[in-house]
């Protein structure tokens, strides 16, 4: 007990996560290759901060020259790990299992995926997984060894995009700030899209508020019966 108790506490407080790499067509492009990764895995808690777009101070990210080509209509997989070099299995090497909440993904069309900061308007949501009455989206990613599947819509215009994959941990969210937002941005060149539909967009910061029922919530008591994922509805073709 003397050994276990402090370890359990450290685990709960610090077992954060990073979207470290992107898998496309079964090929993993490598840690930080086409994904702007921070060296520290801590969350963003201030929804009004510019760092809510693609992470950033207090967790500065490393630029990457790589732009990953992705076919519109295909599915990509964001890989979440506890730290950049984590190799082991879940939950320890993905995210602490206390970190329950939704998963989300957004796209933003940009002129240049390597240089656009991501801050501001242009974002549309392409995936969300909240609470199914028993388990949370983050639990499905943790139990799936950090694999977060995201379908790229077939009806969007071809071009360069930022892909913002997100895990929102609500274990301490009964007050704001308290919800822990984890996100990184991948740099994509999306090819083959039909461009037949134009998504309506939101801004980061701006899409979330500290008073959103999906951001300020006690998930432990009373038991959650229904949960509204924050942000706009998911764009569909
Ligand atoms: C994006 O910017 C980088 C750095 O300035 C440049 O090398 C690259 O050619 C640009 N890409 C596009 C698609 O404009
Ligand atoms: Cu954490």
From TrEMBL:
Localization (cell): Secreted
E.C. number(s) listed in UniProt: 1.14.99.56
Cofactor requirement: Cu(2+)
Main location as per UniProt: secreted
CDD domains: LPMO_AA9
Listed GO biological process terms: cellulose catabolic process
Record field: catalytic activity: [(1->4)-beta-D-glucosyl]n+m + reduced acceptor + O2 = 4-dehydro-beta-D-glucosyl-[(1->4)-beta-D-glucosyl]n-1 + [(1->4)-beta-D-glucosyl]m + acceptor + H2O
Domain Auxiliary Activity family 9 catalytic residue range list: 16-227
This protein's UniProt keywords: Carbohydrate metabolism, Cellulose degradation, Copper, Disulfide bond, Glycoprotein, Metal-binding, Monooxygenase, Oxidoreductase, Polysaccharide degradation, Secreted, Signal
Matches recorded under Gene3D superfamilies: 2.70.50.70
EC top class named in words: oxidoreductase
Annotated InterPro entries: AA9, AA9_LPMO
Cellular component, GO annotation: extracellular region
Secretion signal, residue range per the UniProt entry: 1-15
One Pfam entry name: AA9
GO terms, molecular function: metal ion binding; monooxygenase activity
Family: Belongs to the polysaccharide monooxygenase AA9 family.
Protein name from the UniProt record: lytic cellulose monooxygenase (C4-dehydrogenating)
UniProt organism field: Chaetomium thermophilum (strain DSM 1495 / CBS 144.50 / IMI 039719) (Thermochaetoides thermophila)
